[in-house]
Amino acid sequence: MDAALHERVAGRPVEEARHRAFIVARLVVAACVLLSAPLFLFFDGAPTTSELVLFLLAQIPLASVIVLSRTGDLRIARSLSIGGWLTMATAIHALMPGYDALSIALLLVALVEAALTPDVGTIIVIEVVAIAALALTAGLNLRAPRELLTEHAATAMLLGAPLFLYIAALVLGAVRVEQARARAEARNDRDLMLLTGAVGDILLHLDRAGFVHAVLGDGRHVFDLKRDLVGREFFTRIHVADRPSFLKAVSDAVDGMAVATAAVRVQVGVARNASSEFVAPVFNSFEARVRRAQSNDGECAAEGVVCALRDVHATLEADIALAATHAAAERAATSNVRLLANVSHELRTPLNAIIGFSQMLATDEIAPSEPAKQREYASIISDSGNHLLEIVNSILDMSKIESGVMEIVAESFALPTLADQCCDMMQLQADQSGVTLAREYAETLGEIVADKRGCRQILINLLSNAVKFTPRGGTVKLALLLEGNHVVVTVADDGAGIAAGDLARLGDPFFQTRASLDSGREGTGLGLSMVCGLVGLHGGSITIESGLQVGTAVSVRLPLDCRNSGATGGPARIQTIARLGAPLSVAVVGGAEPATVKKIA
């Protein structure tokens, strides 16, 4: 049996079962015919020419087995077998008068075989026509089966037994084929579930209009398969903007054999807003690969397609995150290059002054002889050295903050007392610039828990910038106000202010506004960056409100106890507000505690 099977059915259990059933049934008939030959000779003697013709025609089933074994084409072999039965029925009707009942029996056998062969429906029609034609020619003179058995008992038995065995073999073979088909389908479904479960795909059988007829695959982590996908439900879950591309992919797959792809967003759930009754759909991104469906024999199913649905939402999210990380890395690299350029520029200026004036003092030919000039050069060298030291210290502090090395030491202290000390330190600079320095403290403000050194540096930097960029006759005001569990430190001035285009870059290392560059006032551009870092370490926030010629107000919001602030350690973000109109006289937050004003002219 294995040798008779064609190689094209290897590894195809259902097709192999069909071939085996076909071969077994025909071999049974062929064996019965060959074994009945000696019995026929014993009972009827030497055969006639007609009987020899019928004996040869009875070998057609064996010939169909040989054709199937050589070609592997079951259609040709079945057509040859059924055609053999029709030919035998016609030959018996023509060559053996009185055996019309046997002809009808052979035609019925052919009809049963064709009925068990659904892919040769045309032959069934031919058989029906042949049976009607034989019945018409035989008329009503058909001998009864009892008369046939009486006159030709041996012949009827010898021919009837193979027919009975043949029909039994056909039925048994059909049962075996269906059993093999059921086992193969169960195994295919199990393997398909395992495969789709491993790769995460969902297979959909749908028509041209997107109507889902069947669902395969393990998609239960995303959908309730029957409720969410079967019928029109899947198409209604596709995002409206993606439906045309999905239907085009289905149409392209129906019209041709190529695989069509479409990127679709499918609703997988809803998101409810806790503060309202608003419900928003949640979509995941899927890749739909669509191909025209094929039957088991390789023919394309009419208007049917198979869609492999793959959830690529996590992949897209990862790609977006990777692109964002890459862009951030590029920005960081660009920022580092710009930072190095700024550092080089800031270090070069005081170093050039130190080297140049020290060389002048060390060279006898150009060294000034006047003591006043020498003191002036020495003062320039000292100022440049101090400026250089300030830059280096600021860079070191900024490096510690950005690398997460700097830690704050929380302690309890009176913020108004610290503010007074900082104002006293800035009073000389304010007097030299002709600026009025005013203070405004909340009466109920007591002690806070924070890093005292960091708070001092925040106040000094803010006051220094305000005094530096306030013209003679202007006013700088320091306000300490309570706001719930936070204290708001506001430094307001009525100076030159900041242009709206420069607000976005406030806090960048070494960045100086156009107003400060135009004024020619010396600065490193690191003060506000240092403030951002220190405020971030305390878990606070910064707001800057400014505009050209309308002054600036910087508000730093710090928790009363920084130990419970939940600070992440990164620099605080600056919220900027472009100010229009006249400068504010006092930067006061609405709802704050009453304040006591101290003013030092």
TrEMBL record:
The keyword Nucleus does not apply. Its EC number is 2.7.13.3. It catalyses: ATP + protein L-histidine = ADP + protein N-phospho-L-histidine. InterPro entries: HATPase_C_sf, HATPase_dom, His_kinase_dom, HisK_dim/P_dom, HisK_dim/P_sf, Sensor_HK_Regulatory, Sig_transdc_His_kin-like_C. GO terms for molecular function: kinase activity. CDD domains: HisKA. Gene3D superfamilies: 1.10.287.130, Histidine kinase-like ATPase, C-terminal domain. The chain crosses the membrane at residues 21-43, 49-68, 80-111, 123-142, 154-175. Residues 342-562 form the Histidine kinase domain. Keywords: Kinase, Membrane, Phosphoprotein, Transferase, Transmembrane, Transmembrane helix, Two-component regulatory system. SUPFAM superfamilies: ATPase domain of HSP90 chaperone/DNA topoisomerase II/histidine kinase, Homodimeric domain of signal transducing histidine kinase. This is histidine kinase. It comes from Methylocystis rosea.
